[in-house]
Amino acid sequence: MNSELLIGLFALAGSIVGASSTIISAFLTSKRSDYKNKILELARQVQAFHKLEELYKFELASQLGKSHDTVLREMRDKVEAAGAYTRPKMTQGEAKKIIEKLQ
Questions:
Q1: How large is the average pLDDT for residues 74-97?
Q2: 87: Cβ–Cβ under 8 A, 6 or more apart, which residues?
Q3: Structurally, how many domains does the chain consist of?
Q4: What Å distances lie between residue 31 and 10, 36, 54, 91, CA to CA?
Q5: DSSP assignment string, 18-72
Q6: How does pLDDT run across 41-56, given as a tens digit for each residue?
Q7: C-beta separation of 94 from 45 below 8 A
Q8: Using one digit for the tens of pLDDT, what is the confidence trace for 21-32?
Q9: Which pLDDT score is estimated for 1?
Q10: Structural domain boundaries enclosing 14
């Protein structure tokens, strides 16, 4: 009788461990998918902001009579000097590579 009880307890423990690992695995897979989608969205936003920046720099350069690279550098310096943001480091090409890798 004691051995049957012991076997039953081990079977119950095994079932609990198996179910727990399945639940944890499903949770982690879901979280990974959520983070992947968030990273994809951020990479797409980086691409969009680079395109927006490109449009603005050409428009401002023509109005100010400066080169578009000068306008871009001056605007990025102003944003960085405001203290709330750092100079963008991710390029449009790097964002594209991230998107291609995660899709």
A1: 86
A2: 76, 79, 80
A3: 1
A4: 31, 8, 35, 27
A5: HHHHHHHHHHHHHHHHHHHHHHHHHHHHHHHHHHHHHHHHHHHHHHHTS-HHHHH
A6: 999 999 999 999 999 9
A7: no
A8: 999 999 999 999
A9: 61
A10: 2-102
